[in-house]
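Researcher: Next entry in the queue.
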Amino acid sequence: MITKSKVSIRDVAKEAGVSPATVSGVLNNGGKQNHETINRVSKAIEQLGYTPRRNKLRKQNKRKRQTKKQFALLFPDCNGPATFGGS
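Model: Structure for this entry, 87 residues:
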């Protein structure tokens, strides 16, 4: 058995028979997992004594707050004939 301080999300995934992404989704309430999967992951977390690392969570939350998504829409001038140079 792995010591409690060294248990990672990968260890939980292996114990539950799922991917680390699935474990992350269960922990973050992703909502895309069925009840059986959630129960298996929860049981593995309890058996292994997994606890998320606080420093890692702080970094992830900080990164989420700093991320800004921007986009731009470009439209041609629809008021007249298409011109390709200055007059």
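Model: The first helix runs from residue 9 to 16.
Researcher: Noted, moving on.
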